[in-house]
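PROTEIN DESIGN WORKSHEET
SECTION A - STRUCTURE
LENGTH: 354
TOKENS:
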């Protein structure tokens, strides 16, 4: 009997210890999982720790993005203004983030309900993860579409240009208009130089010297040499949510002459030139076998995520396909040998005075 009580006391102590640990963890942090069992966010509920998304997977297909973009733009002057980020977020919540399930009829049914007067709030009321997907997709795509002014040729005045107001895609392909490239979905593939790691971007194969374009307006945070990326540029969007990484730029003259750290650049500007530098401990060395641009996008919900072991890099393969709809035309200055954009833009409410 005494032996039995001793065992029970031990079990009781273990139970109490487990309960206390569980209570402490529950009070300090919690993790949310999506319907595929993947952690999507974590936050503290009583310690004062900031709540922000800790994990993102983006795999919206080109077909869904292109359709949502078209619907957004075409509804601009209609009674019901459709929002492409909301449309994509709804489908992401419906599919559990897996756009391999995408069917155009799902988009059509959603749009039909919205056009008949139902609101997105009503339609997503019982969608557990819509809020998460909307926050994540808005951080990725939210500034891609909007009002802007762009220079266009004036048909009534020779070669002169005039400003024209537009609404639509206001970000650009990283490869200038008129320059060919190829790519495939290589996000997550293995890399071994230096150490074993995953490829956190999309490689765009092209010709050495191809002008590289700033996809979105922002501030040049870094430019220079890196043993992995060679000559590279990092540009942070004005809203601080996206960090664009352009690597393996040209040997000897990798950057546009006007570029410097801290400079504000506009979407569509030439920032550098495609090359094959990197994978070398020595600076300014071509050690990549195939000329290409490594293009990556990091999503930042909190500044603590900027440079850490858990950085949030997304797959930009389908985004690169979408950006083909908007490529920046460039012209060469024969004196400086640098390329410049042919048509300037002005963004509405960019928050920066160029």
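SECTION B - SEQUENCE
RESIDUE ASSIGNMENT:
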């Amino acid at each position: 009997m005494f032996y039995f009580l001793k065992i029970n006391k031990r079990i009781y102590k273990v139970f109490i210890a487990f309960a206390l640990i569980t209570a402490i963890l529950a009070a300090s942090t919690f993790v949310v999982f999506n319907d595929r069992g993947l952690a999507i966010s974590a936050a503290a509920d009583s310690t004062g720790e900031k709540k922000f998304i800790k994990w993102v997977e983006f795999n919206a297909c080109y077909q869904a993005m292109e359709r949502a973009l078209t619907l957004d733009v075409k509804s601009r002057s209609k009674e019901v203004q459709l929002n492409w980020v909301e449309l994509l977020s709804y489908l992401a919540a419906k599919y559990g983030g897996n756009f391999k399930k995408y069917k155009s009829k799902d988009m059509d049914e959603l749009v039909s309900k919205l056009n008949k007067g139902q609101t997105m709030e009503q339609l997503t009321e019982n969608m557990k993860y819509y809020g998460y997907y909307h926050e994540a997709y808005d951080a990725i795509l939210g500034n891609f579409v909007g009002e802007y002014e762009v220079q266009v040729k004036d048909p009534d005045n020779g070669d002169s240009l005039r400003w024209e107001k537009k609404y639509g895609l206001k970000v650009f392909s990283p490869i200038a208009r008129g320059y060919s490239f190829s790519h495939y979905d290589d996000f997550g593939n293995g890399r071994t130089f230096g150490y074993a790691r995953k490829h956190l971007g999309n490689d765009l194969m092209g010709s050495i010297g191809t002008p590289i374009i700033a996809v979105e307006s922002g501030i040049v945070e870094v430019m220079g040499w890196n043993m992995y990326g060679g000559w590279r540029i990092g540009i942070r969007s004005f809203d601080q949510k996206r960090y664009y990484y352009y690597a393996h730029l040209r040997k000897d003259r990798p950057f546009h002459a006007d570029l410097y750290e801290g400079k504000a650049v506009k979407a569509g500007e030439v920032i550098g030139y495609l090359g094959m530098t990197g994978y070398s401990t020595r600076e300014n060395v071509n050690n990549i076998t195939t000329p290409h641009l490594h293009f990556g996008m990091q999503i930042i919900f909190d500044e603590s995520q900027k440079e850490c072991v858990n950085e949030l890099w997304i797959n930009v393969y389908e985004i690169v396909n979408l950006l083909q709809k908007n490529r920046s035309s460039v012209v060469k200055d024969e004196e400086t040998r640098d390329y410049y954009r042919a048509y300037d833009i002005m963004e509405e409410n960019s928050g920066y005075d160029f």
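SECTION C - NOTES
The first helix runs from residue 2 to 28.
The chain has three domains: 2-53, 62-146, 171-347.
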